[in-house]
Specification:
Blueprint lengths: L69 H25 L7 H24 L5 H25 L4 H21 L7 H25 L14 H32 L6 H29 L1
Length: 294
């Protein structure tokens, strides 16, 4: 199947085949359907498994040892998120948001966010995962998050950042449990609904940001990011992030079951990082509005 994030659409493990939605799903602990041209009952294995080996007729399928595992995904995700956390902590302490330095710190944070966006787009259009680009994205994203988090903690509430982190972890754990228990089923309809909702949400926020340019530094455009509407749209953003987590889990599950190359674990780590950053920012915004109204 093809999994996506709110920021952009990236290549899925199944390379746009119908395997994730229409074909028989791989079973955990057993061979994926179509792992070789000679799988029992498989008339066209390449239509279901994009990583089936292209063996010649009559030749035995070759074993592949360098395939992605859950451990690979966990370790790559830990490296990527660890880079985000490390650079966020460094920027928190090295880029103060006091009256004397706030302009410089904000400028660096915005520049880092733009670089992170460009790197994310570059990776999204590459056919293969690039660990260097992914880790560089994580580093620049961490700089942006560190400054923003420091500003919120300084001017709104010292404990709001910890609350946002705990809230993000709770969403991740909740979606993971719901996915493993099959309370959430990723289907073509689910995927289409999430993508349509995410596109509409992003377009609406973009229009709001455009209008805010005419309201001065403290403007909020159409008011979708402050007050009651801000809380509502922040909650919607968190729910969308949770839905994208489910898509990411499905992507990882399919990649492991289909025998995706080990390098694809970097794509899984990249996607999970993007989604968790999205959820954290929305969580931080909601909590900031709530704390600011106290």
């Amino acid at each position: 199947m093809r999994s996506s994030n709110p920021v952009f659409s990236r290549r899925g493990f199944s390379r746009d085949n119908a395997a994730g939605f229409n074909a028989q799903q791989p079973q955990a602990g057993g061979p994926a359907v179509g792992t070789s041209p000679y799988a029992e009952g498989a008339t066209n294995p390449y239509a279901t498994n994009p990583y089936a080996q292209d063996t010649q007729l009559g030749a035995p399928p070759q074993a592949r040892g360098d395939v992605m595992t859950i451990d690979d995904v966990v370790s790559r995700t830990a490296m990527t998120l660890g880079t985000v956390v490390l650079t966020a902590a460094l920027s928190w302490f090295l880029l103060p948001v006091d009256e004397a330095s706030i302009g410089k710190s904000y400028g660096i944070a915005i520049g880092a966010a733009l670089v992170a966006f460009v790197l994310a787009m570059v990776q999204s259009f590459k056919r293969k995962a690039s660990p260097a680009i992914i880790l560089a994205y994580a580093a620049f994203e961490g700089v942006f998050l560190g400054v923003i988090s420091s500003a919120v903690s300084t001017y709104i509430s010292p404990g709001v950042v910890v609350q946002a982190v705990l809230g993000t972890m709770a969403v991740f754990a909740g979606v993971l449990i719901a996915y493993k228990m099959r309370w959430i089923r990723v289907t073509r309809r689910f995927y289409g609904f999430v993508m349509a909702a995410a596109i509409g949400f992003i377009l609406l926020m973009a229009v709001n940001a455009l209008f805010s340019l005419f309201d001065g530094a403290a403007g909020d455009g159409l008011g979708f990011r402050s007050g009651g509407l801000g809380i509502l749209f922040g909650v919607i953003g968190i729910i969308l992030g949770a839905c994208f987590l489910a898509l990411d889990f499905k992507q990882v599950e399919d990649g492991v079951a289909y025998g995706a190359p080990r390098e694809e674990s970097w794509l899984a780590a990249f996607g999970l990082t993007l989604t968790l950053v999205w959820i954290y920012l929305e969580m931080l915004r909601v909590l900031s509005i709530l704390q600011g109204d106290d």
